[in-house]
Amino acid sequence: MKYMVIVVAIAAIMSFAIATDGDVEHSAEPSSDAHLEHVFKLETARQGTTQVIIGVQAAGNYIPFWGNNYNACRFMTLYLQSEIDVLGKIVTLSFMPWSSATGTYDNVRVKLCHTSATELSTTFDNNYTGNTPVEVMNVGSLLVGNAGNVWMDWDIDFDYNNTDNLLVEILWNGDAGVAVPIWRTTETVPRRLYAWDDNATTGTVGNQCYYVKLAISTGPPPEHDVGTTAINDPGLIEFPNTTLDPTATYQNFGTSQETFDVYFVIDSSETNVYNETANITLDAGIDTTISFASWTTGGSNGIVYDVTAYTVLSGDVNPANDTLTQTTTTQSAYWKTYATMPQATYYNAAVYSDVTGAQTVWSVGGYPTYTSIFEFDCALESWTTSSAVLNHEAQRTAAAACMGRIYVMGGCDAGFTAHNYAQEFDPVASTVTDVTAMPTARYFNGALTWNDTLIYVLGGQAASYYNTVEIYDPANDAWTTGTAMPSTNRSFACGIQNDTIYVAGGWNGGYISGSWIGVIDPVTPQTITWTAIADIPTGTSGQAGRSRLQGACVETPSGWRFYFTGGDDHGASYPAYDTWFYDPNTAAWVQDLDKTTPISNSQCAVYVPNPFDHGVLFCAGGFNTATSSGTNATEGLVNIGTGIQETPPNTHELTGFGFAAMANPSKGMISYATSVSGRVTLKAYDATGRLVETLVNTVQPAGILIISRMVFTSSNSKHKVKLTRTR
């Protein structure tokens, strides 16, 4: 038996529901009675205090704290007596932020009111049903927000009669500049009302309520009472075949020190698959988090586990709080929401690289910052703002990573004047340098890297629409021209896999439904053979074609696929959440899971390989057509890919980027190692950075391997060898 004491955590019972208006998370609707099923009470060590947690977390919602879009709000949400069922003084009101975000809001007022209403009308004051609201908070400046999934506590004073329902009203004015998403629930009747004016008399209702915790003072606490307050791990969704440490938080709610047993049990199809226990001692009022022995989920999708954490104490006076349960399901792919970007951004471009030794996504340019560079650390799952800035404004731009640098190609300035700047960003040195400009100024173009050697800039728009393909050689800082695309086009989805370019959708005066592949001749890479493939599928509008899509190629267990998501599906009336991939094996488009937030107006989709969430189609920012505004949402379709950049040990002084510098390999053997089996590629580059030969490209077992072969004609040449492994 293994356990350890770690940090205190708070209960988080999660579910998911369809997202609307300010929502930032969605999935399947819970059952209509799920709300009451997840009401529970916890006796705390605070004298005579009962905690009541109401609701099932359904979606992160910017209402009422959407400070980057609005400068005032009046908001109401309704809780039923049957959900509270405690007579006493409410001393703490707590909402839970859905992700890490904080902002200072001005003139914040909170009111509580008894009401006989069972659902909310569109007229604010009517919802009081003749009762007088009590102002329990009025502050000129309030820091709103918290770490994600940690309660945001407000100390208040309200005598609740346990007869009426409870109305919670929040008002504020003054632009906070920061959106703070709060977990909400899904209801069958309107239990939310809001308006973006704190003096509003009427507003918009919705079938939502808000996940809430109430601390209600009822009398002196019992002497002997322990219980379970959170199941921390596993989550509601886990990858198949994943090893984790089941973890729960337990608390001594009583007034005496207690020594008692804690349990963690996992069942599947009524069969016990995991059962661990520990004996712990806690002082009065103290909680602790216990991590039990490791456990591995099953190897397929759709396995449902019943997870239970509970306490056993002889003489416990309140067994109702002893046990928590949740359902965990294995799911290999889903849209995951990450920390939000530092700034709501669209017309930006995103690119992935591990040149710094860490998996990183960079968002470059865009509106409204134009020259900013944001960095997403995949290991920390957090954004920072780079100290480097672009030399020139760049929105409606494209970017690509090549030979350890990131290149921002074209775009336009704040006045939408197309430019031909080519800007080289060095992530290691944090510098930006102008390189030789593109032959053609353009924006809404695409940019793709071939063999870590050349960058292909496709299509775009300036005075007219273009089908030109211009090719940049970073090693020689020179441009050449490639075979033009079959059609003029801009704001299309594009991706590249080995020698094959994919282009889908776009605009050239009308929405484009066509898709093409272009095969690069590796001997003469300026020669591209273009072929039409199946048209992109029709979206919600029911009309053919779409522009401003996000696209990337992804290596999956079934081989390479070309993905696109979102886009302009014939105007803002049809927000595009849908996600599709083209499968070269079947020459057909296949629909995948809908994205959480609709996006357009960016080249912000990139593929991030393993180990980051088992391969992710990663999307940063964009234009949210549902709200007609830019978004800082960061979302990824996780566990879809298999690619991994791996740095082998002791391989000719390989750097964190995966390169080894060496003389002609004919003088000696090249050894390398991988930790798991999979497809291995070993590529040799000459001194100018051009790919000379692929030495290895095959599935190999884990372990140390050796290759000895002559690949270069000059024994005096210096070369680089790059190793990658895909699982």
What is the radius of gyration computed over CA atoms, rounded to a whole number of angstroms?
Answer: 28 Å
Number of strands: 58
Flag low-confidence runs: 1-21, 23-47, 643-668, 708-717
End-to-end separation: 33 Å
Number of helices: 2
User: Strand sequence of the main sheet, in spatial order?
Assistant: 8-7-10-5-12-13
What's the gist of this structure?
By secondary structure, the chain is mainly β. The strands form 15 sheets. Strands 8-7-10-5-12-13 form a six-stranded antiparallel beta sheet. Strands 2-3-15-6-9 form a five-stranded antiparallel beta sheet.
Structural commentary:
Mean pLDDT is 85; it is low at 1-21, 23-47, 643-668 and 708-717. The protein starts with a strand and ends with a strand. It has 727 residues and is mainly β. The protein contains two helices and 58 strands.
